[in-house]
Write a structure and sequence with these properties.
Layout: H1 4-21, E1 29-35, E2 38-43, E3 46-50, H2 57-69, E4 83-85, E5 88-94, E6 97-98, H3 109-121, H4 133-147, H5 153-161, E7 178-180, E8 189-191, E9 199-201, E10 208-210, H6 213-224, H7 230-242, H8 255-280, H9 286-298
Antiparallel strand pairs: 1-2, 2-3, 3-5, 4-5, 6-8, 7-10, 8-9
Helix pairs in contact: 3-7, 4-8, 5-8, 5-9, 6-7, 6-8, 8-9
Length: 311
């Protein structure tokens, strides 16, 4: 849990920022997220975010600057300069309406795919750091190793070992000229203005250059694990291709391009699930067991050692 002084200070800063934007602030506060890698507090139409403790100030500033220059793709911050608060870098954003988790049939798969394709086609600044997807996956596996013994840990670690070094954050990524989000899932989309404005991508913490297939890998992994229906996967993939996305071929089998990243995201998801189960002293639920089972299958079939479809 976030230390109380940081949470209180973040709420105060959100209120001050909201009142500076409008003298008619309706007031109303809520904590939207409270995780080790990010704390998000909302006051009316303003959101304050405390970024991960290890955030590099220069790299975050570059990512924020990019968000201001791609306003139709990324939600722009209210101020591109982060401030320091209780040892954390804090940024301020306009509030956007998130995807409704209670209405899976309304999930904006086409919008997510189109935004990704546009992001991948946008020019990447030469000084932008690599996207942090593989590093985040490696951290999840490290937490699994630290969590203690569990029967499901072995198949996850075996699957992880089949991946090429770049996917384990042990070597530079290939094709690093493409702009990538780095952590794409439906929680990274909001409508702005709320509640029915256009969809935009949020969360710049992992934004950078790298292998664009990584941004398609989570829905690809869900589909491969049987957690995403074929129709929704087809909607997503078709929309991405129609928008000119470079991560997969225009037609034909997309899996040679997606295989490595989808395997890495499956291992990351399974590692996080097992580590949480160990910490809570509980068995894996049905979804968690499904991704562990997928890792068990992955370990018997070597991954593609290189992206066959470049950029």
């Amino acid at each position: 849990m976030t230390p109380a002084p940081l949470l209180r200070a973040l709420a105060v800063r959100a209120r001050v920022a909201a009142h500076a934007r409008s003298s008619a602030c309706p007031c109303g506060a809520a904590t939207l997220a409270d995780r080790p890698d990010g704390v998000v507090v909302r006051h009316a139409d303003t959101v304050a975010k405390a970024h991960p403790p290890d955030s590099d100030p220069a790299e975050l500033a570059g990512r924020l600057d990019l968000a201001t220059r791609l306003p139709g793709i990324l939600l722009p911050p209210l101020d591109p300069a982060p401030l320091a608060l209780h040892g954390r870098l804090v940024t301020f954003w306009p509030y956007g309406a998130p995807v409704d988790p209670g209405d899976p049939d309304a999930a904006p798969w086409e919008a997510a795919a189109t935004l990704l394709a546009r992001l991948h086609r946008a020019p990447a600044p030469p000084d932008l750091p690599p996207m942090r997807g593989p590093a985040k996956a490696a951290r999840a596996v490290a937490r699994l190793r630290e969590a203690g013994p569990h029967p499901a840990a072995a198949p996850v670690l075996r699957a992880w070992a089949t991946l090429p070094p770049w996917a384990r954050a042990e070597a530079p990524m290939p094709h690093t000229g493409t702009l990538c989000h780095g952590d794409l899932h439906l929680g990274q989309l909001v409508r702005r203005p709320a509640p029915d404005g256009p969809w935009l991508l949020i969360d710049v913490d992992d934004l950078g250059t790298g292998v664009p297939a990584w941004d398609l890998a989570r829905p690809a992994a869900w589909y491969a694990c049987g957690l995403l229906p074929p129709g929704e996967w087809t909607r997503f993939l078709t929309a991405y291709r129609e928008a000119g996305g470079p991560a997969v071929p225009v037609e034909g089998d997309p899996w040679p391009a997606l295989d490595v990243a989808a395997r890495a995201l499956t291992a990351q998801t399974a590692a996080r699930a097992v580590a949480k189960a160990v910490a809570a002293g509980r068995p894996l639920d049905e979804v968690e067991q499904a991704v562990v089972d997928a890792c068990d299958r992955m370990a018997t079939v070597p991954a593609q050692l290189a992206q066959e479809h470049a950029k």
